[in-house]
Amino acid sequence: MSATETSATIHVGGEWLTAASGATREVLDPADATTLQLVAEGGAEDADAAVAAARRAFDGGAGAWPRTAVAERAALLRRVADLLQRDREEIALIESRDTGKTLEEGRVDVDDVTNAFRYFADLVVNESGGRVVDAGSADVHSVVVHEPVGVCALITPWNYPLLQASWKIAPALAAGNTFVIKPSEVTPLSTVHLIGLLIEAGLPAGVANIVTGAGLPVGQRLAEHPDVDLFSFTGGLASGTKAGAAAVSGAKKIALELGGKNPNVVFADACATDEGFDTAVDQALNAAFIHSGQVCSAGARLIVEESVRDRFVAELARRAEKIKLGRGTAEGVECGPLVSQQQLEKVEAYVVSALAEGAQLRCGGARPEPSDVRPAGGYFYAPTVLDGCHREMTVVREETFGPILTVETFTTEDEAVALANDTEYGLAGAVFSADTARARRVAARLRHGTVWINDYHPYLPQAEWGGFGKSGIGRELGPSGLDEYRESKHIYENLRPEPVRWFAG
Questions:
Q1: Which residue is catalytic, options 41, 185, 224, 257?
Q2: Residue 325 to residues 121, 222, 402: CA-CA distances in angstroms?
């Protein structure tokens, strides 16, 4: 029986274990609220054991992971990528059932995770031996090299558990670190499977450790643990800032990705042709409702030019009403359920609040009736379009993390930019325009970490991901994503040493 079929979902020092306390947690299927699996409910004692194992693996002798040749580390990452593709259907099914997303979305996630492992393998192996620094003297050899940070504590969210794990694990291993990962207690199953693949690929015992359990106490303990050198968190603003404060108090290196409230700006010229109009509406649906809106970069704020607003919103609502909602593994389903009862109630509360503040309901706004593909008891909520919104509304200010699209309007380019930037967050945004100069001009003015022009949601593993403002600290992916897991060291070598004679004595 494998670890993913039992409650032995804690992996420490090369062993699959149950929680030290014996506690377990039910992982629920969001489509019908039935139990998918029992997992270990780890605690502070388990977190301490995992950090100790990671510490030993990092501080070991000449053969320890940090001192393994870069080519060997890269080769292991490529083996993991191959194993991910071998298990593609199995992992996609795990991810679909655990998070509620469609099976096809699960497959895309596995492919994206595979690409991340291959990218960081290529990046680290193709680097030079360091950056030579011109010291201004032929008698000095000066070079800046990179070394692993040490023991990394990695906290991942419930919406993209496998993907977010790979964005942290792949560069951490490529750089030569050891780690302890705590996946969300709501959706831990695909991360448990990934740890199994790392072990199968030949990763030494103690390099990769996982503790399944809640943020309190496991995440908090990892954040404050004195033997953790780096703390990387992806999740909500409130819990992230609290954990980040604990990590900073211990002088750890930290990286935080804390979500977004992302604008999708549509100019009238993007809708001047039937093809352009169709594309802009389709992309607005894609921006807001993929994975039922449970995406940190979701385009939940539609900011559309006033002259095309009525036509655009009418067509948007018409198409949103036709989105096929159901169990993610069912044929033809386009959107799955929300991840939990708690998230469902949160989304409902946002809609109630918006209507009370004057928003106009154009579609959705309720739980759909049960059907063959929507079991009773599932956490389903209809894609919702709220028109007539403004920045003072709670639903416009806060990250709803659900299938809610708010509509605001503008008449000038400056007004569009001001609205798009009027947010505490700054993770992502988009601009749709047939005028290339305008689109690029607006993109340059948007204070967001990723800006799409005439598109929404694609990302590249070789391009940095992260945000401005309260969207977080640091970057994942790209060369900067590798640098998060390394320390720079300057080595200055005097090739012709001689006395300095600074002191006369």
A1: 257
A2: 38, 38, 13
